[in-house]
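Protein modeling request. Please complete all fields; requests missing the sequence field cannot be processed.
Requester role: graduate student
Desired output: 3D structure, token encoding
Chains: 1
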Amino acid sequence: MSFTIKLDFEIPEHRIQKLKEIGKECKIYPFKRAFRFKSGFVAVDGKFLRLSKDLDEETLKVVLEILFD
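Delivered output (69 residues):
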């Protein structure tokens, strides 16, 4: 289970590359880019962000810092 958020802006490629450094890239339809972690996943595509409910709190904090800092 997961939920999707529509942002007011597109996620820049340099931030997506940082996610690639901490997670394993995978495919989660219909998103173009997704990253798996020890627990859960994050998927990004343009203005859309999909977060797994299984993400642990520490991983979620790191992902949000990468995407919105």
